[in-house]
Write a structure and sequence with these properties.
- Helix 4 packs parallel to helix 11 and helix 7 runs parallel beside helix 8.
- The protein is globular, with a radius of gyration of 21 Å.
- Helix 6 links the parallel strand 3 and strand 4.
- It has two domains: 134 residues, Aspartate Aminotransferase, domain 1 (Alpha-Beta Complex); 217 residues, Type I PLP-dependent aspartate aminotransferase-like (Major domain) (Aspartate Aminotransferase, domain 2, 3-Layer(aba) Sandwich), CATH 3.40.640.
- The strands form three sheets. Strands 2-8-7-6-5-3-4 form a seven-stranded mixed β-sheet, with helices on both faces. It has a three-stranded antiparallel β-sheet with strand order 9-12-11, covered by helices on one side. The chain has a two-stranded parallel sheet with strand order 1-10.
- With 365 residues, it is an alpha/beta fold.
- It contains 15 helices and twelve strands.
- The protein starts with 5 loop residues before the first helix and ends with a helix.
- 40% of the residues lie in helices and 14% in strands.
Length: 365
């Protein structure tokens, strides 16, 4: 049998939140009957009226490879030049474009762990080596900045991935920490993944750092506007970096429907802010409810958080049988934790009731 390149042959697929349709089919559960707390997207759905806008998108012509209308509108919203923007089919595509453009065989990339698994996958796809910096429970899953700086000075990596706020821990690095990393890593490309920034508390603006020539900021409209079925994200960087990413970008990478959704979403003034308020209220309700059950959520600065439950896989299965999906964090190296992202208060109450009724909860408590 013809074998792929060795680095491809050794790839281990990462696990993601969201519905596993094959799993549900085997279990006899309809996807429509599942209440999903495992994904950290806007739980209130896309802005009202978006379906009408999507129905007007042209599907009989190739989409605009530059996503011009969306890019210009987004640039105005962010207050940056259009040449500093690249639209992608979700931020995960952009992660792979960065790795393809900048990393090669035997290049070293630093990735704090636990974090989003697609960073490591992207590195292995191009044959790059990964140095994992552990972020441990003992420190409250806070990044050890001194250790990071020491690793950069010692190994002079080609790249550094920073998920901010970090998935799955919800910890958010201050601007001073990111600036210090970038200063020490002058010859490294720092990829600052802000996929969850829209729902994060007390944020600082990474756009102030876009003029640096070693930074790529990634963001996700998929998360902001609940466009998971369409996939939409963007990269912000200096024009030279954006130009390089364009060279490895597939043609027509963002569908006409996804572009139309992005344009419509950006024009819905006030919707995202209203969702932020409701998400914050639901998170506070869910955290207090879990504490009342004797489960202690870890502090988090964004719209998801970790909860220690003992056997996470068993806990997940028990809730799934009740039609509720939570994120088992075993794939993050945290087999005792689940990750939860709040939904509406009524749906959060359903989750609390379901937990209380499960045998695994009685075992945990």
């Amino acid at each position: 049998m013809l074998r792929p390149k060795p680095n491809i042959d050794r790839l281990v697929p990462t696990t993601h939140g969201g519905i596993n349709y094959l799993e549900l089919e085997k279990s006899g559960i309809s996807p429509e009957d599942v209440l999903d707390f495992s994904v950290s997207i806007n739980p209130f759905g896309p802005p009202p009226g978006i379906r009408q806008a999507l129905s007007q998108a042209s599907v009989d012509r190739y989409p605009d490879s530059e996503a011009t209308e969306l890019r210009l509108l987004l640039a105005r919203k962010l207050g940056i030049a259009p040449d500093n923007l690249l639209i992608g089919s979700g931020s995960t595509e952009l992660i792979r474009l960065v790795a393809t453009a900048y990393f090669g065989p035997d290049d070293l990339v630093i990735i704090p762990q636990p974090t989003y698994g697609e960073y490591e996958i992207a590195c292995h796809l191009v044959g790059a080596r990964v140095l994992k910096q552990p972020i441990t429970e003992k420190t409250g899953f806070q990044l050890n900045l001194t250790e990071m700086v020491d690793l950069i000075r010692k190994y002079q990596p080609k790249g550094i991935f920073l998920c901010n706020p970090n998935n799955p821990t919800g910890q958010y690095l201050p601007s001073e920490a990111v600036k210090e990393i970038m200063l020490v890593a002058r010859h490294s490309l720092v990829i600052l993944d802000e996929a969850y920034i829209a729902f994060t508390e007390d944020t600082w603006s990474s756009l102030d750092l876009v003029g640096w020539n070693n930074l790529v900021v990634l963001r996700s409209m998929t998360k902001d506007y609940a466009l998971a079925g369409l996939r939409l994200g963007y990269a912000i960087a200096t024009e030279p970096i954006i130009s390089v990413l364009k060279q490895v970008r597939p043609p027509w990478n963002v569908s006409s429907v996804a572009q139309a959704a992005g344009v419509f979403a950006l024009k819905t003034d006030g919707y995202l802010e209203a969702c932020r308020i409701k998400i914050k209220e639901a998170k506070e309700f869910l955290v207090e409810g879990l504490k009342g059950l004797g489960l202690l959520p870890l502090p988090s600065q964004t719209n998801f958080f970790l909860v220690k439950v003992g056997n996470a896989a068993r806990f997940r299965q028990a809730l799934l049988r009740k039609g509720i999906l939570v994120r088992d964090c075993t794939s993050f190296g945290l087999p005792n934790y689940i990750r939860l992202a709040p939904r509406s208060i009524a749906e959060c109450q359903r989750l609390l009731t379901a937990i209380k009724e499960t045998e695994v909860y009685r075992h945990v408590s």
